[in-house]
Amino acid sequence: MATAQSNNRRRSNSGSTRRSSTSRRSSGSNGRKPLQGRDTGYRVGSSRRQSTSRSINPRLIIVGIVGILLIIALIFGISSCVKGCSARNTKKDEAKEVKVNPEDKRVAYGVAAEETNRLAEVLDRNEAFADIAKNADKITDERLIDLAITEPDAIEFVAGSVKADGSTQPFDEAVTKGEFPKLYTFDPRWGYASYADGIVGSTGSGPVALSIASMGLSGKTTYDPATIAQAVTSAKLDNGTTGMDDSFLTNHASDAGLTATSIEASSDGIYIPLAEDGTPVVIKLKSDSGIGSNNAHWAVIISLNSDNSISVYDPTSVIATSHTWSLGAVASKTDTAYSVNAAADTAGGTDTDATPDATSEGAGETTGDESA
Fold first, then answer.
1. Residue 253: which of 273, 226, 223 has the closest Cα?
2. From CA 184, how far away is CA 155, in angstroms rounded?
3. Structural domain that includes position 239
4. Half-sphere exposure of 345 toward its Cβ, with a 13 Å CA cutoff?
5. Distance CA 260, CA 248 (A)
6. CA 195, CA 181: separation in Å to the nearest integer?
7. pLDDT, average across residues 223-228
8. N or C: which end of the chain has fewer CB within 10 A?
């Protein structure tokens, strides 16, 4: 009995203890129902899923896709514009190509004919000079290359020398007595003919200078450069540094339709025949004279001008022939000088100034100085 009561008290105390403990836990939660383990697990998992959903926002994906599409469209647009512009430029270029300068297609359309022709001359010379450079190994006479470099008007002649056959053509232009023609060694009508140690184009200043004097004094074309070059060769005087020995003028001037008188190669010596009688003077210029060719060569002083300058027709240079010179400057560069007149046969017996040729019948032929 006592034992049973004792057990009841112990159970009652145990229950009180449990209720007291529960009551404390409840009061520690401020009266809220404590979370159960399953409920807590669900809420944590739900929180994670919500966070993941916010990090992959569908609207951001859409914006990104739209941005990519815009970039692609922009790229295609630029590409199309470039192609379109290129096509338009090509059409413009094709349109320009259709319009060609009627004078010379190498010159721009719309350029005046006179200007076109001037440009065409330069273009022709440039093309010819390129041919000279390409075939320089075939041009054995270096004087021809020097001629092309220093004399623009000789470029085409020098370029043609590679295939020239040495043939000549007669001078077929009209001449007037008292008017001296401008003739040059590099004229293809005679320039390719063999002469001295080269061709007339490189060594023929003597025959060409005499031809200028003969035609101007007589008004006849009987003694053209090719004819006189052959006469000098026949006399065996086609030598020396100038291609023609001085003695040809002394002893064979009639073979050029001329008479010749040696004069002093000085300002006074040259001035007298020019001033007194208007007689032209054939001169031999020193090498490196600065007048025409750098080599020693022949030229003709055709007149004394009102300002005491002189007009020199130089067979080696269009440039030297194109302007006047100081008499003193030319005389200082002159080795030999001859005043010349038309011979009786070329003057037709009407030129009272003509004097007998120095080589009349029976005059012995001289060889002159044959040293180079």
1. 223
2. 13
3. 165-347
4. 12
5. 10
6. 22
7. 97
8. N
The pLDDT of residue 351: 40
Residue pair 342/217 in contact by the 8 Å Cβ criterion: yes
| DSSP-assigned letter for residue 349 | T
Is pTM, for the whole model, over 0.85? Answer: no
Same domain, yes or no: 297 and 231: yes
Rounded Cα distance, 202 and 184, in Å: 10
Q: Are residues 133 and 171 in the same domain?
A: no
Higher pLDDT: 335 or 128? It is: 335
Specify if 302 maps to a domain.
Answer: yes
Helix 142-150 and helix 113-134: axis angle, to 10°?
150
pLDDT value, residue 357: 39
Residue 246 lies in a domain: yes
Distance CA 293, CA 17 (A): 141
User: Token pair for residue 184?
Assistant: 């040059």
Sign of torsion over alpha carbons 299, 304, 305, 310: positive
